[in-house]
Amino acid sequence: MFNKYFEEYKIGETWTSTGRTITESDLVMFSSFSGDWFPLHTDKEYAANTHFEQRIAHGMLILSVTTGLLRFEPGIVVAFYGMDKVRFTNPTFIGDTIYLNATVIDLKEKGQSQGVVTVLQEVKKQTEEVVAVLEMKILMNKHTLE
């Protein structure tokens, strides 16, 4: 998705990623890394007694995994610029396969050599239910002629 120069993007342009299945190991490793051991993610018995009836993936785990589904081209991508309007709309369970649909919704010039591409991301699972929605901003280089 982020593999071309700023001025090559068009508002309305779309892209769909490949999928990735969320595993129990993902939840355990993310808990270890982040320190987030909330029982809804890590305690099978606790989660069974919630309205989800089973463990769910951490929202931040889902955002982290979807970052890995994107293509960031070194030399073109300058930096992750931020996220806005993040919402987790449905649970992601162990065994769900997530992917994302992305649509360019805004392009802002940032000086003579860079610009910010804003993409609406809908993270979906195999049932096509949306599990997360956000606007991601990436600072991109412009193509410069020498």
Tags for this model:
146 residues, alpha+beta, Thiol Ester Dehydrase, Chain A, 6-stranded antiparallel β-sheet, 4 helices, 21% helix, HotDog_dom_sf
Descriptive report:
The chain has 146 residues and is of the alpha+beta class. The chain has a single domain, classed as Hotdog Thioesterase (Thiol Ester Dehydrase, Chain A, Roll), CATH 3.10.129.10. It contains 4 helices and 6 strands; from the N terminus they run E-E-H-H-H-H-E-E-E-E. The protein has helices at residues 24-34, 39-42, 44-48, 59-68; strands at residues 14-16, 20-21, 77-88, 97-110, 114-125, 130-141. Strands 1, 2, 3, 4, 5 and 6 form a 6-stranded antiparallel β-sheet that branches. The protein starts with 13 loop residues before the first strand and ends in a 5-residue tail after the last strand.
Oligomeric state of the chains present here: single chain
Any idea how many domains?
1
Rg value: 17 Å
Biggest β-sheet strands, sense, barrel: 6 strands, antiparallel
Summed over residues and divided by their number, the pLDDT gives a mean of 96
Question: Gist?
Answer:
The chain is an alpha+beta fold and 146 residues long. Helix content is 21%, strand content 38%.
Question: Topology, pairings included?
Answer:
Elements: E1 14-16, E2 20-21, H1 24-34, H2 39-42, H3 44-48, H4 59-68, E3 77-88, E4 97-110, E5 114-125, E6 130-141
Antiparallel strand pairs: 1-4, 2-4, 3-6, 4-5, 5-6
